Amino acid sequence: MAALRSVVGDAGLLTEAADRAAFESDWRRLRSNPALCIVLPRSTAEVAAVMRLCADAGIAVVPQGGNTGLVAGAVPVADAPQIVLSLRRMAAIRTVDPDDDSLVVEAGATLVAVQEAAAKVDRLFPLSLASEGTAQIGGLVSTNAGGLQVLAYGSMRALVLGLEVVLPNGRVWNGLSTLRKDNTGLDLKHLFVGTEGTLGIVTAACLRLFPAIRRRATAFVGVVDVAAATALFRAAQARAAGALTMCEFVAGDAMRLVARRVADARPPFEAPAYVLLELSSPDPDAPLDRTLEALLEEALEAERAMDAVIAQSERERLQLLRLREEISEAELAEGGAVKHDIAVPLSRIAETVAAIEDLVAERFPGCRPNIFGHLGDGNLHVNVLPPEGRTVSDLGDLYGTITEAVEALAVARQGTFSAEHGVGQMRAASLARFKDPVDLDLMRTVKHALDPAGRLNPGKILRAEGTIPRDGASSGR
Ligand SMILES: Cc1cc2nc3c(=O)[nH]c(=O)nc-3n(C[C@H](O)[C@H](O)[C@H](O)COP(=O)(O)OP(=O)(O)OC[C@H]3O[C@@H](n4cnc5c(N)ncnc54)[C@H](O)[C@@H]3O)c2cc1C
């Protein structure tokens, strides 16, 4: 502790239980374990010094960003001497270069801060998700975060040009390149994107910027069923090509839940399912409204769509987006949900949703599927609500059984059990269950090469095989 204090100062070391508490529990309050202390360095040099001290003392290090991750990856595991290393005091925008369309930022900056820094020089940083006010660049890189505009711009992996990383032994890798092309051996930055802080501490990132958006057209469309939703997505892709920047799916039941549970959030009309579509362009004269209207007319004539509204102002646009964003809050108010983050090939979305509805009705009677997600990416949040009047804590052992069944259903359809949230602690057993042994061996080999003592974020992603954790006793946020 004294050695750590000499590196980060009094303000950079939290040892009291009350000060540690918020760093020790994950956002969903599903995992909570003590850390020896919370360390908050202010520079890359301090991170490196902390890593060297921990290596010498045999102490594990849990990197933490905004702690908005949904798989308990940024909080301690049970029974290990470990510190939480929070990057929140390293939040500077180091450089913004509109000529290079790049920005270099420290890991602790929030996504909103990066979006705003890009906007100031008339550029767009396109990553966008509901946690953007709190989620930090280091966390977003380490989870390869996705969100609302992946179908146009890709997930975080596609937006990272370079990284600066402190390795488990305290060495600093400076890979802050702004180059778009560099075929000189292993592209090392990809070792750290999406690996959830198990291979190194991201201290800074060089990010790719895009032209600022000057025109948008946004529609909320009621469709007759899930197949009609995917047909609408395909039609939008064919008509709007690169201008299609958002295509979200919301099942009718999920929308009704929002209407019931969230004040001032009402869908403009009733439908079996909904699609939120957005076209955008840097060209202020782009005829996006006309394209969107033609698309919707076609869908109405083909009787795939039943009704639609097009936002007439930014205020109306935000109201439509809010209908989609409030689903998690509505679930909470309803007593929580067993959450999943599956992806399947686009061609199998409709079949998958039908199979999930059948599965829940047959095996978990009374439970209620609540399905929404990033349709354009084949990524569905398949959440299962407890029976009416119950909370998710009442599910007990059923919690894990539901997860096993939903994940198996996705994997059986050439899908994945974790599309964008990662593995962390919550999906480590699923990884062991579903991944090919060769995949697992390769992952272990890489982990061992970079972190032979297993001191960086232990118990995350790779761990001994086990059962799906039973999280029913939690609040189920
Ligand atoms: C309301 C809400 C909506 C969300 N919507 C989406 C969505 O649409 N798409 C999506 O992909 N995710 C979504 N998420 C999940 C979450 O916001 C993302 O996973 C985000 O990337 C986490 O960032 P964070 O800074 O909070 O990371 P944390 O939760 O702090 O950490 C996440 C992981 O990264 C590691 N880590 C953190 N910082 C570093 C670092 N500097 N170096 C190395 N490792 C590090 C941690 O150890 C942990 O394993 C949502 C979450 C919430 C609460």
Summarize the helices and strands and which ones pair or pack:
Layout: H1 2-8, E1 13-14, H2 17-24, E2 38-39, H3 44-57, E3 60-64, E4 82-86, E5 93-97, E6 102-106, H4 111-120, E7 123-124, H5 137-142, H6 150-153, H7 156-159, E8 160-166, E9 172-175, H8 189-192, E10 201-208, E11 210-211, E12 215-223, H9 226-240, E13 244-251, H10 252-261, E14 273-281, H11 288-301, E15 305-310, H12 314-325, H13 327-333, E16 342-343, H14 349-363, E17 368-374, E18 379-385, H15 398-412, H16 428-434, H17 437-450
Parallel strand pairs: 2-4, 3-4
Antiparallel strand pairs: 1-2, 5-6, 6-10, 7-11, 8-9, 8-10, 12-14, 12-15, 13-14, 13-17, 16-18, 17-18
Helix pairs in contact: 1-3, 9-11, 10-13, 14-15
This protein binds flavin-adenine dinucleotide.
Flavin-adenine dinucleotide (FAD) is lined by residues 27, 62-70, 73-74, 87, 107, 129-131, 135-136, 138-140, 142-143, 145-147, 196-197, 201-202, 328, 420-421, 424, 457, 460.
- What are the low-pLDDT stretches, counting only 5+ consecutive residues below 50? 464-477
Shape: globular
Helix content: 25-40%
Mean pLDDT: 94
Number of strands: 18
Strand content: 15-25%
Structural class: alpha+beta
CATH fold-level assignment of the domain at 93-211: Uridine Diphospho-n-acetylenolpyruvylglucosamine Reductase, domain 3
Text of the CATH class of the domain at 93-211: Alpha Beta
Distance between the termini: 34 Å
Number of helices: 17
Strand order of the largest sheet: 15-12-14-13-17-18-16
